[in-house]
Design goal:
CATH class of the largest domain: Alpha Beta
CATH superfamily of the largest domain: P-loop containing nucleotide triphosphate hydrolases
Structural class: alpha/beta
Bound molecules: prephenic acid
Number of domains: 2
CATH architecture of the largest domain: 3-Layer(aba) Sandwich
Order of helices and strands: HHHEHEHHHEHEHHEH
Radius of gyration: 22 Å
Shape: globular
Number of strands: 5
Strand content: 5-15%
Length: 252
């Protein structure tokens, strides 16, 4: 029995060596494509091309190629955007939704700091606010920033209050570019009016409260930002595309 297993494992090792060789060959081409895209200002993620490749396969093989292409995007992104992308801004500006799409398109890991906080405390943020108060939450937020800012190649969506604390901005800056998502108070109101999970807005979301809070924070948001992107008339994909395009151009 053991002999059979040993033999089969030797065969697997031989297969893996061949796979690795081909994988490295493919990745060298991906690198060349990356340079070509850079030169011509083309996006990293090409959904049409990926669909064309994926429709050739089904089941596990499709998964396999899907993962290879994610690694390829990550590789091009690492080369072209060698820093974390950190989304900051007021609630309702789309940080979580845009962050997810950005991470996908760049083949990166995504972390939503509010979600990470909820997982850590085992309850909703608004529940935690009620029981422990805002300052306990801000302390937890700082701890999470300390943890996640040391990683590389991430997309990080911050809670709306994160950059109000200067030490958070400093930490996030060491490994990332801070991208501020903006929206008019009316847009934010429309996006949040039925949302009861925003403790700093109270139980009933009001336009006036949004305006006041936004006013008091605007300066700090702007001061922390490397890049400012307006989201009023854009969907999530359009916003993500604009962020990548402008970061690639080295714009601010
Ligand atoms: C590749 C990677 C990313 C794109 O989304 C599409 C395809 C791939 O791995 O096949 C290569 C590539 O960058 C490209 O063909 O444009």
């Amino acid at each position: 029995m053991m002999n059979v297993l040993d033999d089969l494992r030797k065969k697997i090792d031989a297969c893996d060596r061949k796979l690795l060789e081909l994988f490295e060959e493919r990745m060298a081409i991906v690198d060349e494509i990356g340079r070509c895209k850079r030169k011509h200002g083309l996006p990293i993620y090409d959904p049409k091309r990926e669909a064309e490749i994926l429709q050739r396969y089904t089941g596990d093989a499709q998964q396999f190629f899907s993962e290879i292409m994610r690694l390829s995007r990550a590789r091009q992104a690492r080369e072209l955007l060698p820093y974390n992308i950190v989304l900051i801004g007021f609630m309702g500006t789309g940080k979580s939704a845009v962050g997810k799409v950005l991470a996908h398109d760049l083949g990166r890991e995504f972390v939503d700091l509010d979600q990470a906080a909820e997982e850590r405390i085992g309850m909703s943020i608004s529940g935690f606010f009620k029981i422990q108060g805002e300052s306990a939450f801000r302390a937890l937020e700082q701890e999470l920033v300390r943890e996640f800012a040391v990683y590389e190649g991430m997309v990080i969506a911050c809670g709306g209050g994160v950059v109000l604390e200067p030490s958070n901005v400093k930490r996030l800056r060491q490994t990332g570019r801070l991208v501020l998502l903006e929206a008019e108070p009316e847009t934010i109101y429309e996006r949040l009016k039925n949302d009861t999970s925003r403790p700093v807005l109270g139980d009933q979301v009001q336009l006036e409260t949004i305006k006041k809070l936004l006013d008091s924070r605007d300066e700090k948001y702007k001061r922390s930002a490397d890049l400012v992107v307006n989201t009023d008339q854009k969907n999530v994909q359009e916003t993500a595309d604009e962020i990548i395009r402008r970061l690639l151009q080295g714009e601010s």
